[in-house]
Write a structure and sequence with these properties.
heterodimer; A: 163 residues; mainly alpha; B: 499 residues; alpha+beta; 11-stranded antiparallel beta sheet; 6-stranded antiparallel beta sheet; 26% helix
Chain lengths: 163, 499
Amino acid sequence: MRGQGIDFTTFYETERDGMARSLLVIGGDAEAARDAVAEAFGRAYERWPRVASMDSPGGWVYRVALNELRRRLRRRALESRWLRRQRLDSIPPPDVDPELWDAVAALPRRQREAVVLRYVGDLTERDVAGVLGISEGAASAALVAGRRRLAERLTDRKEANAP
Amino acid sequence: MTAVEDRLRDLRRSVSPPDLPTTDQVAQRAAHRRHRRRALRVVSLLTVLALVPLIVGRLTGDGDDGRVVSAGPRDALATVRAAVGRTSAAGSYEIDLDTTMTQSGPTYRFTGHAIVNLDPYAMVSETNNPSLGAITTHVNSTHVWQLGGATVGYGPGTPGLSLADYSSQVVGTLGRGPGALAMISLASRGGYLNLEEEAVATAAPAGTGTVGDVPVIYFDVSIDVTRLADAPNLSDIQRQTIAAALPLLEDSGYSGTSERVGVDDTGYVREINSTTNFDDGSSTVRHSVLSNFGCAPKVYMPNETPPTATEPGRCDTTTTGSASSAASPTTTGSPSTAASPSTTTAPPGDSEASCGTSPYFGPAPGWEIVRSGASATAANIPLGPNTRSGDAPWDTVERLEETDVLLYAMFWPAGNADLPLRELPLSLDDAQPGGLEGQPDNIYADRLLAQVEGWNIDLLVFYGGGDPRGVPPMPPEPSAEIRATAQEQLGRLGVPPAC
């Protein structure tokens, strides 16, 4: 996340895949994730000297990308009127455990974002808090609650599927 | 490291990122955005240049069909007088008030909300003052009831305090000039507006603007309050009260009231900014925003008993508060003023409680409500078309500003997957921060799940106040005051038993 002194190309190539991966898991929509990441890095490119001087250029781009993703999903949700869904239905990518994919999708938004940023994006708790714009305590609480929910859901599934 | 963490980290390894643009493509995208912004600026400038002649044309055109399409100097006076007449003819309206009275001693500022009925004349206002607290005032053509401040007019068998007797108390509190002006306001029909056709002395166009989302044409108007006593349909007591107050006004060096009046294109007075200065240095500055013309709730005096059955709606049977055609400004509806005294409106009737009727929000001044088959919505700003067509109220949620709140309850009959059993009134203390996919990022939301009377209820309370232009747009925690406002409306959630 820390990137002072690096050029944009290096920054982009270092950060883009992890960010795109996280946004894909958060939103379940590869196209929205790709566009959101491209949009966020485009904005970073426009003001790179300022972004590069920030404590966490990656955090800034993550926040912009996450907002952009939410905006795109919101528009999609409005168009589809799938109002009760926490995340648009999506087919898990190949090689991804569908049970885990569904369990993450079923998390409330904040918990889902926190968990994915922490474990898929490999951000620190402090950076998760910064990206989500919440306190470290709140980020920690969301992570704990998200992990607990995931554990419950994955355990329930396993028990339900047991012979 | 737990198993869940391990599996999540596996997810990182197994998820392939989508195809992403190259660095050059990102740079091109940024350049494209710069060009687009530049083009937008040019288009905006051209649009403004094109609109100027149109606006000038409207300001110098002629009226048609009673709608205000002109504001030329030659017919400004006629336009303002017609607007005052049209507003009175609506029969009812609501006013958001902000009044500051300055004198040699303390300065009094009152903010609040009033509902005005004109046939027969009846008004209730709820105002707040930092030193006097909340004051509820009921006025009809003869009597006054004031609750809070110095409570008057209440008691067993008390028909209220005569307007004439009330005068001396008001003058004693506010001072001669502002007090006399307040009494004239109370005694004249129109609810603090001091606006009768007869009293409009001069008017001149003063540009255009918007009140909330409603475009208005402004006029600078001078008012001759001495003519208010000549208005028709006043009671003897009202005339006497105005007549008694006029000498006090003169003694205080009253030289007239100047007002800026906003008239919308349907011919209603939407906004009034008035300033009255006195020779002794005291002054009264009043900002009034009008809404809900012809659709304001029926006002009952404290010595009257509202009917127990639901009255036929004055406009839309499912809507109270601001009329849909009359968008009220987003500055309205401060929490304390949105509250209604219990005697102000008729409560929902017993018929609402019949089996098979879906949950609903009860009406209250300053609130607009809509009920559909699967949801009920209440907001202290005008609701957008989404709600009326049965969709989620995103078009209203996006407009929420500070002190604005919207309650959206979705419900379905309880079944296998039931929500937590709760009792009415539901409490926001049981709510959790939450929201729905699709809500604007700058909007804070509480979510409350409940099972009541055989209904599963998924309630969302959206609070305004976040900056949508922030990067990222951050939703602020709602204040205790705005939460109290939401709780008050939540208390009006009616849940008839499911069949």
